Amino acid sequence: MFGVADYWAFVIAVIVFLAIPGVGNLAIITSTTKGRIVGGLAATLGVIVGDQILMWLAVAGVAAVLTANPAVFGVVQYAGASYLAYLGVRMILAKPGDAPVLQMQPRRFFQQAMLITLLNPKAIVFYMAFFPLFVDPARHQGLLTFGVMALTIAVLTFLYCVVSSPSRTSRPAVCAPARAWACG
């Protein structure tokens, strides 16, 4: 479909990658808790924009450049992994009542979620290594193929964030129609 080798396998792969707990999920949950619907939506859009940047960098050939230069790819991976390890150690050492590990700040939910996504090794590996596997070279339709994939990722990310956001009691009634639509 549209030059994607197996569209439904691609959809399942995106959903699996979204469901793997990570710092992006933590950023969205923290932003939703602190900023309610507006904070959660801002962080969700930040994640979507970060994903789109990584995807289009892969399309532009950055994936090929990083594959050809393993040292550069390693630096990118280790920078993201170091950031996640730093957050993990802070979580392990945190005591009840300590400041939150991830300091999501109002008016910066979008920027922080986008930066977290751009440094997330899980996202980097998906777009630089795994993502190209779904492009069918024999049926590739140029920008249409990547546009369909980009739109699919954005829609699935948005739906995942709506469905998996903090409990109904912590969200205003504005979320009910979106949740009802997303959950069927």
Characterize the structure shown.
With 184 residues, this protein is an all-alpha fold. It has one domain (7-183). The protein has helices at residues 7-19, 23-59, 62-68, 70-93, 109-119, 121-130, 143-164, 175-183. Helix 1 (7-19) runs parallel beside helix 7, helix 2 (23-59) crosses helix 5 and helix 2 (23-59) runs parallel beside helix 6. Residues 167-184 have low confidence and may be disordered.
List keywords for this structure.
184 residues, mainly alpha, 72% helix, globular, disordered C terminus
Low-confidence stretches: 167-184
**Counted beta strands:** 0
How many distinct domains?
1
Assign the structural class, choosing from mainly alpha, mainly beta, alpha/beta, alpha+beta, or little secondary structure: mainly alpha
Overall morphology: globular
DSSP helix fraction = over 70%
The total count of helices amounts to 8
Mean pLDDT: 76
Distance between the termini: 25 Å
CA-atom Rg in angstroms: 17 Å
- Estimate what percentage of residues fall within beta strands: under 5%
- Main sheet makeup: none
Q: What is the string of helix and strand elements?
A: HHHHHHHH
